[in-house]
Amino acid sequence: MTADLVRTERHGEGGYVAELVLDRPEAMNAVSTAMARAIAAATTALAQEPDVRAVVVSSSHPKAFCVGADLKERNSFSDDDLRAQRPLAQAAYRGVLDLPVPAIAAVDGYALGGGFEIALSCDLVVCGADAVVGLPEVSVGVIPGGGGTQLLTRRVGWSRAAQMIFTAQRYAADDAFRLGAVDEVVPAGSARDRALELATLIAGHSPVGIRNAKAAMREGYDTDLASGLRLEDERWAATAFSADRAEGVAAFNEKRRPAWPGR
Fold first, then answer.
1. DSSP H helix total and E strand total for the chain
2. Per residue in 118-155, is it b (16+ CB within 10 Å) or e — as a string?
3. Please, which pLDDT band fits residue 13 given cuts at 50, 70 and 90?
4. Active-site residues: which are they?
5. Which of 12, 61, 146, 252 is within CB 3.0–4.6 Å of 117 for a Cys-Cys bond?
């Protein structure tokens, strides 16, 4: 699928890995109203693809993943314009966050503001050594509004998130890794390759199992332990009595690679 500002590519055997490429290089992928619509449309389409097993979010710009909201566009906005744009922006970030399969951000260069929030909306964040991340919104009179106040706090804890958000500082990849804000740092320019490698590994496992594991983690994260375990049991049952489970056990005993039915 190809769309203005965003494109989707398939990789690997079976095309089970989808790559969502942010493709507005002339603006370092700044999220304009049109860009938000494109991201929302692309993630909605991917979520409905039954054969997608993992998603990589990457950039066509070698030195920028995404620099956040398009402040040049917003400079001419009235308050009503900003209110009208808000649900479109929310749909873009939630589209990434709510993907039913694992999502991996491949970050080389700058991931700032809403750009870093797109990465945080993924399950894993892989950074090149030259990556620079941050949530500088308070320095321009707003706050992170693409999930950053919630997602970063859940990743790194209150005090570290407070430092990153309140100071509006930028962080080098290694520093972000030490804080727990990103998951892996690889040589500069290789984040996409590593993210695709991880996605390919994930895509080789049971699609029913992967989807239900992610759902159990997401559904149970903000509940008490007893409720979380009940949710886990529901997802366990949905997986254990699936065709994938039967194939996985058979393949293990027959010492062969599983041919996942995906149901």
1. 11, 11
2. bbbbbbbbbbbbbbbbbbbbeeeeeebbbbbbebbbeb
3. confident
4. 69, 114, 117, 137
5. 146
